[in-house]
Amino acid sequence: MFDVGFSEMLVIAVVALLVLGPERLPKAARLAGLWVRKARAQWYSVKAELDAELANEQFRRELQAPLEEVRKSLDGAVASADELMRAKTPPPTSDKSEDNSS
């Protein structure tokens, strides 16, 4: 995350020892370690949530195209079935005309 080398860490340790003193330095180091751990855990949590959200969005996009194709295919099949049903159904005939011819 931060690019801190050994020499920079040594300078920070010496300054902390001079400012805090040998009595308070271990408590401060523990507290700093706790904060770093909490910050790192929070960062990983947010990162995992973002990765999951991106994966869900990508999965949704990948499914969208095949679903559109299926929908279009079904619409075409329904339209064809409607046309076939209309073509097979004979036009209605009136029974009165047959009765009059007898």
Architecture overview:
- The chain has 102 residues and is mainly α.
- The chain has a domain at 10-79.
- It has two helices and no strands.
- The termini are far apart.
- The mean pLDDT is 87.
Question: Keyphrases for this structure?
Answer:
102 residues, 0% strand
Element layout with pairings:
Layout: H1 6-88, H2 95-101
Helix content: over 70%
Are there runs of 5+ residues with pLDDT below 50, and where? none
* Global Rg: 39 Å
Distance between the termini: 101 Å
Helix/strand order: HH
Question: What's a concise summary of this model?
Answer:
With 102 residues, the protein is mostly helical.
